[in-house]
């Protein structure tokens, strides 16, 4: 059983050959010092650091990285050593974070050589500190124990070493940072394993229920990500998925929290009592199973989708049955020639229609009751959603602050069914994105598209792309998401102004064939290097010039400016990019690329198609309803988009 330590807590170590694993979310310097009974370090030869990574019984990493593994053999350390203190420090790299309060809380785990966690410690509460003594292994009455320390130092590595009695601490700290700078490598985390994701998880559902079947959509309509397999091709669909995406897979839904050992998440909070006997209980925001309120709300939205899909399917099935039964009764009644004349035939028709209407009315009553309950639940849930799940008109955006870690999912629009067009449910996609997005700027079969001018459709599509890029930038920690733009013809200059003027783009929008080639070459190189590093188990040894942030490429007016080589590179990015943090956002009319023929069909199928206007082209995985997608729009006259981008840009400058 893993011991989750808090600051000052200790735990006995059952073995002496260990690994200490560090996960920081940003490159950090990891080292260790050997101390006597009082914790005093008697010289630089008692310090393991990137410039001198090995001591008897101790080995640390030679460079700064987001993830470290320190090897420890306590039986091999000198007899005079009674403490091994693990140190973390932010590297003195230009443009990097200068305090731990600006990055995600580092996580440290003491494990056996086989990887089994013995004790873990999350270093919360750090602010201005740039160096921290994370934990110490200490000898007590012949046994070794681990203690969570978490002592930070605003004076950095020099202050921390001086506190441990090291003479010449400032000079030593400077030499360590110089050694790090000489061997500075960039680090990326391997993509998290994608686990099967299952059925609705609320207080009425059992954990580990089998995933729902994936139903084919009607016609050639593109679709949503499925619940069972994540985003798929255009032939299957689904609503938002349930459960976290990382961790050991234990069933259709994986609730293995990265910092907790448990087999099931805590139950949902109590449901509010019914206002009147016999009525359903009042809805409560977060009325779903999950480790956090974010996860509860996420699963609640998922459950609302399933409820609406199934209750609508029941209503449609009842109406179809009523119509079929009426037809059968009329056929039987009118098969007798004597009933075809006179009042007998009219009476049979009236009786059959009355039965049909009775069944239909009963089905409609049940549907209206369920719709009213879902509308009440939506009215409670919508105001409680965090920014990543909220619409642009939600007040949560007025209190927006750049987050410290990415959320579970991102809202990219709303969905509704014709039985109740006013009941809109959020369309959430998991983060990191599992496939790219295609905003169809061409004419579609929807009524809204038919009534919209072609040029206006294209402008709306680019506006939609800018809004999606702004949302992605807003929900990632500062500096952990980069956006590139290809606008080969320069036709989207006005629409791209919020991104350009705020300074959040990785560079100016690329124009012309040369700009297209340059951006694609840079991103395909990144995909190649990260894939090779991950396959080789060297994810912390990437070139210094490689941007390890998640990357988004917005392509407008495809295929203008693309030659055959560029098209091949784009297909490569769409296929291979998402698994290593490179994502594609296309703004295109498929007809414009018709000259390529079927060679581009795999590209279109690999992307999640959405539209700049309302369109009923998405299907769910339960019964295959055609859902109407509504893009998110900022309120008329609102400056929320610009304000959010300004905060993102400011956080990057100060981070």
Describe, in plain words, how this protein is organized in 3D.
It is a single chain. Helix content is 30%, strand content 20%. With 655 residues, it is an alpha+beta fold. The protein starts with a strand and ends with a helix. The protein has helices at 156-163, 169-182, 293-334, 343-384, 447-450, 454-475, 497-502, 512-535, 564-576, 601-606, 640-654, and strands spanning 3-5, 10-12, 17-35, 47-48, 54-55, 58-59, 65-73, 83-89, 107-112, 117-122, 131-140, 143-153, 409-416, 425-430, 437-440, 481-487, 550-556, 582-588, 608-610, 615-619, 626-630. The strands form three sheets. Strands 1, 2, 3, 4, 5, 6, 7, 8, 9, 10, 11 and 12 form a twelve-stranded mixed beta sheet that branches. The protein has a five-stranded parallel beta sheet with strand order 16-17-18-15-19, with helices on both faces. A four-stranded antiparallel beta sheet has the order 14-13-21-20.
Label the overall shape: elongated
Mean pLDDT: 82
Give the low-pLDDT segments.
194-263
Total DSSP E strands: 21
In short:
The protein is an alpha+beta fold and 655 residues long. It has helices at residues 156-163, 169-182, 293-334, 343-384, 447-450, 454-475, 497-502, 512-535, 564-576, 601-606, 640-654; strands spanning 3-5, 10-12, 17-35, 47-48, 54-55, 58-59, 65-73, 83-89, 107-112, 117-122, 131-140, 143-153, 409-416, 425-430, 437-440, 481-487, 550-556, 582-588, 608-610, 615-619, 626-630.
């Amino acid at each position: 059983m893993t011991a989750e330590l808090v600051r000052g807590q200790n735990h006995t170590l059952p073995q002496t050959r260990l690994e200490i694993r560090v996960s920081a979310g940003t490159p950090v310097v990891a080292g260790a010092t050997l101390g006597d009974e009082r914790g005093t370090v008697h010289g630089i030869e008692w310090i393991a650091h990137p410039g001198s990574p090995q001591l008897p019984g101790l080995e640390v990493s030679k460079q700064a990285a987001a993830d470290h593994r320190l090897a420890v053999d306590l039986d091999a350390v000198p007899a005079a050593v009674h403490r091994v203190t693990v140190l973390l420090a932010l590297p003195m790299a230009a443009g990097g974070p200068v305090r731990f309060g600006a990055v995600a809380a580092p996580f440290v785990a003491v494990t056996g050589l086989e990887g089994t966690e013995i004790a873990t410690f999350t270093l919360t509460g750090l602010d201005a500190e740039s160096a921290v003594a994370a934990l110490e292994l200490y000898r007590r009455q012949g046994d070794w124990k681990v203690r969570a320390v978490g002592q930070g130092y605003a004076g950095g590595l020099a202050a921390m070493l001086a506190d441990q009695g090291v003479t010449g601490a400032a000079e030593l700290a400077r030499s360590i940072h110089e050694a790090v700078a000489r061997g500075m490598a960039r680090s990326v985390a391997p993509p998290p394993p994608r686990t099967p994701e299952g059925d609705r998880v609320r207080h009425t559902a059992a954990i580990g229920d089998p995933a729902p079947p994936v139903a084919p959509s009607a016609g050639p309509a593109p679709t949503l990500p499925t619940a069972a397999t994540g985003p798929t091709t255009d032939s299957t669909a689904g609503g938002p998925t349930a459960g976290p995406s990382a961790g050991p897979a234990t069933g259709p839904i994986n609730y293995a929290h990265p910092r907790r050992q448990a087999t099931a998440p805590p139950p949902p909070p109590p449901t509010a009592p019914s206002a009147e006997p016999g009525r359903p209980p009042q809805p409560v925001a977060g009325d779903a199973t999950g480790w956090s309120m974010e996860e509860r709300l996420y699963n609640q939205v998922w459950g609302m989708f399933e409820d609406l899909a199934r209750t609508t399917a029941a209503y449609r099935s009842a109406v179809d049955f009523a119509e079929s039964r009426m037809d059968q009764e009329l056929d039987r009644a009118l098969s007798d020639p004597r009933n075809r004349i006179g009042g007998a035939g009219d009476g049979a028709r009236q009786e059959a229609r009355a039965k049909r209407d009775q069944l239909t009315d009963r089905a409609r009553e049940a549907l209206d009751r369920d719709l009213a309950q879902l509308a009440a639940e939506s009215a409670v849930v919508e105001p409680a959603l965090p920014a990543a799940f909220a619409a642009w008109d939600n007040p949560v955006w007025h209190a927006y602050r750049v987050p410290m870690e990415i959320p579970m999912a991102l809202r990219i629009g709303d969905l509704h069914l014709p039985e109740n067009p006013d009941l809109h449910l959020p369309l959430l996609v998991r983060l990191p994105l599992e496939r790219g997005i295609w905003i169809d700027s061409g004419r579609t079969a929807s009524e809204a598209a038919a009534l919209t001018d072609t040029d206006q459709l294209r402008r709306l599509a680019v506006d939609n792309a800018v809004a999606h890029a702004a949302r992605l930038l807003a929900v990632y920690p500062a500096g952990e998401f980069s956006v590139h733009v290809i606008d080969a013809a320069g036709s989207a200059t006005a629409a791209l102004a919020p991104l350009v003027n705020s300074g959040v783009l990785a560079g100016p929008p690329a124009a012309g064939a040369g700009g297209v080639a340059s951006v694609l070459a840079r991103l395909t190189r990144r995909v190649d290097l990260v894939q090779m590093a991950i396959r080789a188990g060297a994810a912390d040894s990437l070139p210094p010039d490689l941007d390890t942030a998640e990357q988004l490429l917005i392509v407008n007016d495809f295929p203008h400016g693309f030659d055959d080589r560029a098209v091949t590179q784009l297909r490569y990015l769409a296929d291979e990019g998402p698994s290593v943090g490179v994502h594609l956002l296309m703004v295109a009319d498929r007809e414009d690329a018709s000259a390529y023929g079927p060679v581009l069909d795999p590209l279109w199928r690999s992307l999640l198609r959405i539209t700049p206007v309302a369109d009923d082209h998405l299907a769910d995985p339960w019964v295959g309803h055609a859902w109407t997608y509504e893009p998110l729009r900022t309120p008329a006259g609102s400056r929320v988009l610009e304000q959010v981008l300004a905060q993102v840009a400011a956080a990057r400058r100060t981070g």
